[in-house]
Design brief:
By secondary structure, the protein is an alpha+beta fold. It is built from 24 helices and 22 strands. The strands form 5 sheets. The protein has a 7-stranded mixed beta sheet with strand order 3-2-1-4-8-6-9, with helices on both faces. Strands 14-15-16-19-18-17 form a 6-stranded antiparallel barrel.
């Protein structure tokens, strides 16, 4: 026991800056953790497994295999993440005549045209010689196949989309491209564009009909891939092209994905501003570590690839639904190199609902499992040994759903059914299990604490686990069956509602609730099993916290904004057009629709006033954006102001997009704002609070839905049984009170701000069949009542 806990104490001390060489510190730290993990695994293998009946042995074996999977993943993760690197940017001279030509590909399928327009407009602002830049909208939603669909509605929508995007391309001076059919989904769309823009390297089929329409004498040496909702900053090419000019064997420069809106977990639990996003661990820690091993891979967007290398393999690989990682694997095997630049230079959209989130993650899981089955990295020819391990680790991770659900159900198997899943005394648990678990969490916090707070990994894996399992098993047994599914983006949710994927979490909560009285009974009836009861009860309590958090996740909170806000504090100036006076202030939030301002004292603006926002970005570009004040209010002893941008013309719209999305330093500041390490106990307490808050909202929401449903069903019943109206029952309407602010608004504007102007009184008469009741329904300025009268 003392050895294990002594090693844990050593790990606590090693977290401090005791070594001038960080690499040496990481190696020693990981060796200590590896010792604790190996010690525990040998104990589990040789001291805890025995046959106690068929079902008990089955449950015990499942738990052991799940733990072994996690241990293997932990060891591979230590290897892959041992030496993360941060590449210095290689500046380029934009006047250099040797700059390579760049094609920007923006594939789109069914996303709203407004989203595509923002991304394309931002591409026209990129700092790069215009004569060396070509922008292409790759429309897979307006293919010939879709425009001639047998369903006239679908065909009409495809033709409408086709014309709108063609018109958008003409207005912005970019290229529009589509194809005959949607074969191979996104990968096929991009490969077709590669062929049309450079038919010499990508021979086209004779019957394609596109050879003379889209080909150019000179095609881009480099391809910048952007999803249609990934808006680039001005400096994305300045910060990536230089790497290709220095290394001819480089096939990829990948950059991070930054998301302006919270994912459903962050939104529904309210963690977006307090904790790093779920994707930040991958883009800020894992990818830089893979870069050390020349194993960082393409992520589908925000990456620059060399056309010549793509031509060698016939374009993007399409044997799996994760064409990005598959393409990287193939090119790494050919000896080419990749680089990762840890600077966010695009801004994208996360899925809005938990259902869309699961759709996206199950596609990723299926794609990586397809690679595991069809192109297993351990046996892929010409990959270096360290690359095999890194890719294998990336594939193996996506089996987490099986292990996570076993960890959720294992303690219940003992507490409810009495199955012996873990054969160890309390002393052995303290000597082996405790040090191992503490070591794992200390290691995780040491390597990823700045980008992933404690227990968030367990939360995300539990939330996805029930839905990950069928997707993974499908890809294991039928690796060629998964099809590419586009993740819906930019949804608006008018009301709170319960996700249709909530059922598994209620079932687990029900089982846990049933297990509580059975645990109490087991404690009194089986005194020799107190050690196992204690361990499984603590384990189950931890699982309850995760399930409560999941209940908070599946209660979807409404999202009605058309454009998402980014919270940022920047110095700006406002100008009053009538007087020319200028005042310094700060922004509080920013979106394409408007800006929130923190005003100084005695600034003479009020609701309805027009102002000009004078701002600049970190590159020295200046912006003048007209805006209208829509509200002013006090917050924390500061005067706040909400303004709506006034889009006078197309140039104003372009300026707004350039100001909001053009500066990468804004995304970096937001990243660093959430970069704070927290202790394991503080992280657990934080999630416990969020779990209780989220589950209480879930229960309250369901109760509210039940009450409203009951009211809807009870109204016809009460109408049927209530007595007939008589003159003595008639009531005059009570005079309704009007708030002072409404009185002031009505005196000034003629109607209350935020409400529609009053309509002339409308009188409708209704007589219920079979009764002597008659009433008049009167409407005046949004207030209505019923006046009874004699028939």
């Amino acid at each position: 026991m003392w050895l294990g806990w002594g090693m844990v104490l050593a790990l606590v001390l090693l977290q401090r800056d005791l070594f001038p060489n960080k690499a040496v510190q990481r190696i020693i730290f990981m060796l200590f953790c590896l010792f604790l993990t190996s010690r525990y695994w040998f104990f589990r293998t040789f001291d805890t497994l025995y046959y106690s009946g068929f079902w008990g042995f089955l449950a015990m074996t499942a738990l052991y295999l799940a733990e072994s999977y996690c241990i293997v993943l932990n060891v591979l993760g230590m290897f892959a993440n041992i030496f993360p690197i941060q590449r210095e940017l290689i500046p380029v001279d934009l006047n250099d005549p040797n700059l390579p030509l760049v094609d920007i590909f923006i594939p789109t399928y069914n996303e709203p045209e407004e989203i595509v327009a923002v991304t394309v407009t931002a591409c026209t602002h990129i700092d790069y010689p215009k004569e060396k830049l070509n922008i292409f909208i790759l429309d897979d939603g307006g293919t010939s196949e879709k425009r001639n669909d047998a369903d006239p509605k679908k065909a009409g929508k495809a033709r409408e989309r086709h014309e709108k995007l063609k018109s958008l391309a003409r207005s912005l001076g970019v290229n529009y491209m589509t194809r005959q059919s949607n074969v191979h989904a996104k990968a096929g769309n991009i490969t077709h564009a590669l062929a049309r823009t450079c038919p010499k390297e990508f021979p086209l089929p004779n019957n394609c009909g596109c050879r003379d329409k889209g080909s150019k004498e000179r095609c881009g040496d480099l391809i910048l891939m952007l999803d249609c909702d990934h808006v680039p900053t001005r400096d994305i090419l300045k910060n990536t092209v230089g790497f290709f000019m220095e290394d001819e064997d480089l096939f990829l420069v990948q950059t991070p994905h930054f998301f302006i809106n919270p994912d459903p977990v962050e939104k529904n639990l309210g963690t977006f501003l307090d904790s790093p996003g779920e994707n930040e661990m991958f883009y800020r820690a894992v990818q830089p570590a893979l870069d050390f091993w020349n194993s960082s891979f393409f992520c589908g967007s925000a990456g620059v690839l060399r056309r010549r290398h793509l031509a060698e393999i016939g374009g993007l690989a399409h044997d799996t639904v994760t064409e990005d990682a598959e393409t990287s694997l193939t090119l790494h095997a050919r000896g080419y190199k990749s680089a990762y630049v840890s600077k966010p230079m695009i801004c994208g959209l996360s899925p809005e609902t938990f259902t869309d989130f699961i759709l996206q993650r199950t596609r990723w899981a299926q794609g990586m499992v397809q690679i595991f089955r069809l192109k297993n990295p351990l046996f892929f020819k010409k990959l270096k040994f360290h690359q095999r391990l890194c890719y294998f680790n990336s594939c193996l991770f996506w089996f987490f759903g099986l292990a996570r659900i076993i960890f959720v159900l294992a303690p219940l198997a003992y507490l409810i059914f009495g199955l012996k899943v873990y054969n160890a005394s309390l002393l052995q648990i303290l000597a082996y299990t405790g040090p191992h678990i503490f070591g794992v969490y200390i290691l995780s916090n040491f390597m990823f604490g700045h980008v992933r707070h404690p227990f968030f990994s367990e939360l995300y894996e539990t939330a996805q686990g029930f839905f990950n399992i069928p997707a993974v098993l499908s890809a294991v047994f039928r690796p060629r069956s998964p099809k590419f599914k586009v993740t819906p983006k930019s949804r608006t949710l008018s009301d709170d509602f319960l996700s249709p994927l909530s059922t598994p979490f209620y079932l687990v909560l029900l089982l846990t609730t049933v297990g509580i009285p059975l645990t109490i009974l087991r404690w009194f009836h089986y005194p020799l099993e107190h050690d196992a009861i204690i361990m499984c009860s603590v384990w189950s309590a931890f699982n309850i916290v995760l399930i409560l958090l999941c209940l908070g996740i599946v209660w979807e909170r409404r999202q009605v904004r058309r454009q998402h806000r980014i919270y940022t504090e920047e110095d700006v100036t406002i100008r009053i057009p009538q007087t020319g006076d200028q005042y310094r202030c700060k922004t509080s939030d920013l979106s394409l629709d408007g800006v929130g301002l923190v005003l100084g004292p005695h600034i003479p603006i009020a609701r309805g006033d027009r102002i000009d926002l004078l701002a600049h970005d970190s590159y020295g570009n200046s912006y003048t954006i007209p805006a209208e004040v829509v509200q002013t209010y006090a917050r924390d002893e500061r005067m706040m102001c909400g303004c709506r941008f006034v889009v006078k013309d197309e140039e104003t719209r372009k300026g707004i997009i350039g100001y909001v999305y053009g500066d990468s330093s804004r995304w970096e500041r937001f990243w660093h704002r959430r970069r704070e390490r927290v202790s394991t106990w503080r992280g657990l307490g934080y999630l416990l609070f969020k779990g209780l808050d989220g589950s209480s909202r879930n229960i309250g929401g369901i109760f509210s839905l039940a009450v409203n449903a009951a009211k809807r069903y009870m109204v016809p019943f009460t109408r049927a049984v209530r007595p007939l109206a008589t003159p003595s029952m008639a009531r005059e309407p009570k005079p309704h009170s009007i708030p002072r602010r409404a009185v002031r608004d009505r005196q000034q504007y003629g109607f209350e701000i935020g409400r529609t102007p009053p309509v002339p009184p409308v009188s409708t008469h209704s007589v219920e069949t079979g009764t002597v009741r008659q009433y008049t329904n009167c409407t005046d300025g949004g207030t209505s009542w019923k006046r009874f009268s004699k028939a």
